[in-house]
Write a sequence for this structure.
């Protein structure tokens, strides 16, 4: 993998391109096919854009209401307001979180979120990350977070409007079932029961894996060169039965189509050779930039990503930087909607 300057992944995005609500119905979102040429479609066209026999691999993680608002207590007269966004569970009663304002916290401080939920700061790390130990554990803690927290909408939406009840369903895929994500695997937000039925009719199967998306996915790249960026870690799993079914399909010449960069990252982390993956359970911090040799995934369905982001680097590795710069230019000029609630793209892998 070659070192690249982060500036190479920059582009101008007008703020009007950022979607603040999803398309309705969800599969009415637009879809840009990026292959030997660019062509404009809608997500509901997927059954005819994919090949019969293709396997879609979706991430069934479920977003928890991971943004908690509380006050620091027990240190003098002042009780500053603290916002904590949980992003990775490390024990039944412990989470890593990003705190705002982090400078107001010291190790040993207590943050109170409600009458029933509080925590102690047990570590402070780089980039505003803290580690919290809660007064509850396991399912009791899960229930208290669900009752107290709000949906952790990405900063580029939350800075423009309030989170509301509509987001509880909008920011969740229809097949979400494994609690633990603090950001949605957004490519999957476009799926509807009608689309799923149409895909099955077109002989396109759907398999599921789980990668709990962390808030680190939104962290800006603050270095000048790709080599110097430390990738965030996320936990996930692929069952042995799923791995076996995917490997048999791939051996039969069928294409593996990742729904979202999260599915792709987990499949590539589990790949042991170019035509096989192993069952997987644990964390991955795989960082994919141009020059990476893809081992397993043949096509990728994904939303439009931020300039200079690790995700734009990933799609540039998949299709080529020039191709993706041209695709994004076309998308902006054609009025495609960007980011989590925005439109989609279907990328065909280009190993050249």
């Amino acid at each position: 993998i070659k070192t690249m300057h982060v500036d190479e992944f920059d582009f101008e995005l007008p703020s009007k391109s950022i979607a603040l609500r999803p398309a309705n119905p969800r599969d009415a979102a637009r879809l840009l096919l990026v292959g030997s040429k660019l062509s404009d479609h809608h997500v509901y066209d997927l059954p005819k854009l994919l090949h019969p026999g293709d396997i879609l691999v979706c991430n069934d993680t479920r977003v928890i209401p991971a943004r908690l608002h509380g006050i620091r207590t027990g240190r003098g007269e002042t009780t500053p307001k603290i916002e904590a966004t949980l992003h990775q569970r490390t024990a039944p009663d412990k989470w890593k979180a990003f705190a705002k304002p982090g400078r107001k916290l010291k190790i040993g401080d207590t943050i109170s979120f409600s009458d029933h939920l509080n925590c102690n700061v047990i570590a402070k790390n780089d980039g505003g990350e803290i580690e919290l130990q809660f007064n509850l554990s396991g399912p009791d803690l899960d229930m208290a977070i669900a009752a107290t927290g709000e949906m952790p909408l990405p900063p580029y939406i939350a800075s423009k409007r309030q989170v509301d009840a509509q987001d509880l369903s909008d920011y969740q895929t229809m097949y979400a079932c494994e609690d633990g994500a603090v950001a949605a695997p957004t490519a999957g937000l476009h799926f509807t029961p009608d689309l799923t039925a149409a895909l099955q009719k077109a002989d396109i199967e759907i398999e599921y894996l789980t990668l709990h998306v962390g808030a680190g996915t939104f962290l800006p790249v603050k270095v000048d060169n790709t080599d110097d960026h430390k990738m965030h870690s996320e936990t996930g799993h692929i069952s042995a039965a799923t791995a076996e079914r995917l490997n048999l399909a791939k051996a039969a010449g069928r294409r593996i189509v990742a729904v979202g960069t999260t599915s792709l990252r987990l499949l590539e982390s589990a790949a042991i050779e170019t035509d096989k993956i192993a069952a997987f359970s644990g964390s991955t911090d795989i960082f994919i930039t141009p020059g990476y040799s893809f081992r397993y995934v043949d096509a990728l369905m994904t939303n439009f990503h931020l300039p200079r982001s690790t995700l734009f680097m990933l799609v540039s590795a998949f299709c080529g930087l020039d191709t993706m710069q041209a695709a994004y230019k076309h998308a902006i000029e054609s009025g495609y909607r960007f980011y989590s609630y925005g439109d989609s793209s279907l990328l065909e892998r280009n190993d050249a």
